[in-house]
Amino acid sequence: DASRTYFFAFAQVAMGVVSSYNWASFPFDNLCRAEDNLFGNFTAITRTQIESVTLIFEESEDITVNASDTGYKYCQQGIYRNPGNRFPAIPSSQPDGAHWMTDHQEVVTKVFGWASVAVLGYIFLKFLWVFCLKIRSIFASDYEARGDVQGINYSDIEAVSAYIPQVSTRVFAYPLIATDTNSFDPELFDWADADKDHEYYDLTKDADEILQNIHVTATNMFSKVAHWDPNEGSIMT
Q: ∠ CA 81-84-88 to the nearest 5 degrees?
């Protein structure tokens, strides 16, 4: 129950938030189209230096950038790493001057971004509701009776099975009774030995014999069973 309440709730939040950031960060190359494109003839110089030797290799290459070419610049596509509005991951969270989302991507990102907010809000309200129920259970009972009154007295049932403390053992064919059998009607047992009565399995009798030399009785050492006999109009304890 705890796993269903907490683990799966956090898993849903993680899935919604991470999915929104993944859609917002696509295509993960940290390149944005440059608004001010430089065009003309340029020379790219590459220098390679070997540390163990003082030699420096230098290579140059002429590059021509036409006015019709598309220029790119570096931009951080991880919205959660950019300053400013980091949550939710929606198109408006892109930094100023750095836009990499396509029109279709902005639609999908907006859906996933606000969906992550909805999931987060739903889980928060769910936890708040569970918390309020736990607080309410401290001060108010939530017990609801089930079933209908059948109008049949318990004492009128032919076969009854009351809760009587018993200890099962392999030594005896029937369980040992951990209470005084003289305090209630034997009819409350759901078993009976054809050769011996229930008093034979009464542990309080054995305890009285063992403890008689130290003047301790078994009265306060075993469970007590109380039985109200409606036919006799008295209570047996």
A: 75
